[in-house]
Design goal:
- The protein has helices spanning 5-22, 25-38, 70-88, 139-142, 154-168, 185-193, 195-204, 206-229, 279-294, 312-315, 332-339, 361-377, 397-410, and strands at 46-49, 98-102, 105-106, 116-119, 129-132, 151-152, 173-177, 239-240, 243-244, 266-269, 299-302, 321-326, 344-347, 382-386.
- 42% of the residues lie in helices and 13% in strands.
- Helix 10 (312-315) links the parallel strand 11 (299-302) and strand 12.
- By secondary structure, it is an alpha/beta fold.
Length: 411
Amino acid sequence: MSTSTKDQNILRELARRVAEIAALPIQQETIALWKALNSLKPVRAMVMIDQIPWHEMDVDGELTLQTEDAFCRDIETQLRRTLYSWKHMRADMVVQPFVTIHKAIRGADFGVRVIEETAVTDPRNSVVGHRYIDQIKSEEDIMRIQVPNIVHNEGATKQAEERAREILDGILEVHMQGALPGFAPWDQIVQWRGPDNMILDMADRPDFMHRIIARLTDAHLSMLSQLEDKGLLGFGQGTIHCSGAFTDELPAPGFDTQRPRARDLWTFGMAQIFSTVSPAMHQEFEIDYAARWYARFGLGYYGCCEPLDKKVDIIRNLPHVRKISMSPWVDVEKGAEQIGRDFVFSRKPNPAFLAWDTWRPEAVEQDLRDTQEKCNRCGCPFEFILKDISTVHYQPQRLWEWVDIAMSVVK
């Protein structure tokens, strides 16, 4: 498919601006800082933001798309968001000299569809309320969980690559990215069953729940093997679950760009619905299964919104974990004491600060400095990863100011 002159000119101009930024020496300086943190020898704490309510962020048309073709609009979105972030909320982002195009990989389907009812408060916001309908009530229902059949549409991938290279020729490289899988089976199960049914059955029908998680774990591992065998895994991660992923420890010896292996990559995982589950149950139903997944990867990030300050001991049973999420609901001091110097304390500051009716920057700074003080006291490498930002009250300047405050704290 040909690209109109108008669309191509728009993308090439945006690409030139991104390329100029990517060539700045500060990019390599920031990569070096991420590598130091990820090797547990930080120069300073690092700051990153992700999962942004982009529908609230446009200022003076900076994010308004001007291309018409759908393929071009995807690239334009990537370029405009990069430029916007660099201008307004840079933090410790790294701008790289390429555009990422994802390979046409299909079939990562486990056979069970989500059936739900949703509640919407802001029709422009993709964050909605969910009520899930239980679909796995019996032993027979467990058999509905299927092993994915991974298929690569090589023609579609080649067409996308050729078109992107033609548009951006001589300005930015095109990075054809493969799959970068994570392991969050309980986030899937809770959508298939609903939280109440799932949690109650872990106590009342533990064998039943073990059969569910065992079957789904086997399916995930089969999917991973297929991706690996077919040369469809990605490589060169700049981020891992919203955090900087730059490291000198990956890829592993013997790396081949045409056939990346799991051990060349970071992975991530979580069991967010386990917030109210005891450490013993968390170990039994999650860690014992997740260990099989993490064992195959080079490095790992564990956790998301679930509070893990009282569960660091069991996370130590996961192979190759380097970063542990510390959500807004943890006891920071307890988490820092448990982590010590052994992992990166991946602090998730509370995004609710950005959603209040009244913006209170002093509360943001106090929260960040509290984490900094307690991590420093424990000799704990740490980072600030602001994510799950559902709203900034339609005041994007709040997020810009949050970044300024965070960078002043860590520097």
